[in-house]
Amino acid sequence: MEDLIRKAQKGDKEAFTKIIYQIRHELYKIARCRLSCEADIEDAIQETIIETYKSIKKLKKIESYKKWIFTILINKCNCIYKKNKSRNISFEDLELENVYYSNETYDELENSDFYFILKGLNYNERISLILFYLEDYTIKEISHILKTNENTIKTRLKRGKEKIRSKILKGNK
Length: 173
Prior knowledge:
The chain is mostly helical. It has helices at 2-9, 13-34, 38-55, 65-84, 91-97, 107-110, 112-118, 123-134, 139-146, 150-170.
């Protein structure tokens, strides 16, 4: 992967495409954690890819490329979320949000029970749990990505797990 990043930094478009292709599922999972509308998720990912492509030469630590891209994505998602926070949602929008437009089957769609459980958590708990359990980041790395204190991340993980445990024991009531 490091070779691909070096090539992409030198302007190799094919290498950059391969990098994005390899992490596309992770990008989707993270964007889906913050945004519910498929169009917004796609916009956030697309804006992230564009910004990443334009600034990949600025990446100093090649081994940290995922953290770097995820930080950009989270910022894009937050901007879209804030922009659309007050928009009215119609029944048509709700219906369309449950439809997936791509022909690809993403791993996270197969784990819909996991996402149903996460839906009851607040954004900070969801993103922390996804980065920790699905993406295997350490608490320190999550703290860096989310620009938050490590103890805050620990608290979010603990609260999120407690809410999930409670939801499972109550039978999703």
